[in-house]
């Protein structure tokens, strides 16, 4: 015989389980899969104010006013600094909905009662019955959060052109060509243009080392004095393999700590790949995007040099991944759960970043 469960009790159980999941992950813990780029964005989370639905970032157009020396009663010159150039970034709403189909719950032995008015006063479930229902809810909510994480990770990579209602990601802020714009300012403007070098070769006489040196040097040149330690290098598996091959062909040294036990290991661990002291972080999502989107320049062959301080994952504070439960519909037997988020990702120093690609 099915156990009668008031609809409001089901919602209370969902809400209770969600709080446990959210607090364990909350709000930025990613505990299911390596997502280095999403981790990069989340470390730059910041509450920002909306100005008519957008975030505006002022750029200094020039700093050409000359310094003046003076003596005695020399007249002093005063000039205006041009800071009227600004980028503008919109806010975006993200939603991922989940349903608990009542027929599924009935197959599990729970019949949802819509007409129980005193549901929030006392639950008719025994401790064991409630525990089993909580486990059913937990499995579905865990999968729902996993799906939200995975979808958000993909969004934070893409350029946003496939769905203009979703926020743009890395491919929009550090593109492979100086077309389009950053916050309304064309990428042809040196203030927002990242450094780009395509097709670095990994042969013994290849261009990989020189190309990466130039990319990081140019990025740091525009980083307003920040050190290289503020940079993250995120790349695809294909790029990391070619980097390792280039290093091997050119007899670059691999430093290892002595363990006291002789071992034969001809591999280089992912954690051992570095450039100018910065680790190369391999992003598994690059390969996923190659499968889903089949871009002309594969993600797996890309390598990004990203200034941490230049990226902001803006949010208004009130909707930083918020769970809600809309009323159950009258004509369909299900209970709905909504995960919503309002964000404005943006870049404040566009020309302090770089991207290079490896030749196929």
Please give the order of strands in the largest beta sheet: 9-17-13-10-12-11
- Total strands: 17
Helix fraction, binned, reads 25-40%
- Cα-atom radius of gyration: 26 Å
Total helical segments: 8
Query: What overall geometry do the principal axes of the alpha carbons give?
Result: globular
What sequence of helices (H) and strands (E) makes up the elements? Answer: EHHEEEEHEHHEEEHEHEEHEEEEE
Strand % is 15-25%
Q: State the low-pLDDT regions, or none.
A: 26-30, 118-122
Integer average pLDDT: 85
Q: Mind describing the biggest β-sheet?
A: 6 strands, mixed
* First-residue to last-residue Cα separation: 63 Å
**Sheet/helix structural class:** alpha/beta
How is this structure best summarized?
The chain is α/β, with parallel strands linked by helices. It has helices at residues 7-25, 36-42, 102-107, 127-155, 170-173, 208-221, 237-249, 285-293; strands at 3-6, 45-47, 54-59, 85-90, 92-101, 110-113, 181-182, 185-186, 195-200, 231-235, 274-275, 278-282, 302-307, 311-315, 322-324, 334-347, 354-358. Mean pLDDT is 85; it is low at 26-30 and 118-122.
Structure description:
- With about 350 residues, this protein is α/β, with parallel strands linked by helices.
- It is about 30% helix and about 25% strand.
- It has 8 helices and 17 strands.
- A hairpin with a 2-residue loop joins strand 11 and strand 12 (about 280).
- Helix 1 (about 5-25) packs across helix 4 (about 125-155).
- It is globular, with a radius of gyration of 26 Å.
């Amino acid at each position: 015989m099915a156990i009668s469960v008031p609809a409001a009790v089901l919602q209370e159980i969902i809400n209770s389980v969600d709080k446990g999941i959210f607090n364990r992950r909350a709000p930025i813990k990613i505990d299911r899969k390596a997502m280095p780029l999403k981790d990069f964005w989340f470390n730059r989370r910041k509450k920002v104010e909306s100005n008519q639905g957008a975030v505006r970032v002022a750029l200094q157009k020039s700093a050409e006013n000359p310094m003046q020396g003076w003596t005695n009663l020399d007249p002093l010159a005063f000039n205006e600094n041009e800071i009227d150039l600004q980028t503008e970034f919109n806010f975006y709403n993200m939603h991922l909905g989940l349903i608990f189909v009542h027929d599924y719950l009935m197959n599990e032995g729970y019949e949802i009662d819509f007409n129980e008015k005193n549901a929030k006063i006392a639950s008719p479930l025994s401790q064991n019955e409630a525990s089993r229902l909580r486990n059913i809810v937990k499995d579905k909510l865990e999968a729902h959060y996993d799906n939200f994480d995975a979808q958000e990770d993909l969004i934070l990579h893409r350029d946003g052109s496939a769905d203009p209602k979703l926020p743009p990601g890395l491919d929009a802020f550090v593109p492979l060509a100086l077309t389009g714009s950053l916050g309304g300012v064309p990428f042809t403007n040196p203030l927002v243009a990242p450094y780009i070098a395509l097709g670095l070769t990994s042969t013994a006489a290849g261009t990989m080392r020189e190309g990466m040196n130039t990319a990081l040097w140019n990025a740091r040149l525009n980083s307003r004095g920040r050190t290289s330690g503020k940079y993250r290098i995120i790349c695809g598996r294909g790029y990391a393999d070619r980097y390792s091959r280039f290093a091997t062909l050119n007899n670059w040294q691999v430093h290892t700590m002595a363990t006291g036990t002789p071992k034969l290991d001809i591999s280089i661990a992912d954690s051992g790949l570095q450039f100018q002291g910065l680790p190369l972080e391999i992003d598994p999502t690059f390969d996923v995007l190659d499968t889903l989107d089949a871009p002309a320049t594969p993600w797996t062959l890309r390598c990004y040099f990203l200034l941490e301080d230049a990226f902001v994952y803006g949010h208004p504070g009130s909707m930083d991944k918020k769970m809600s439960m809309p009323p159950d519909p009258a004509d369909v037997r299900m209970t709905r759960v909504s995960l919503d988020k309002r964000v404005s990702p943006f870049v404040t120093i566009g020309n302090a970043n770089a991207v290079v690609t490896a030749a196929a």
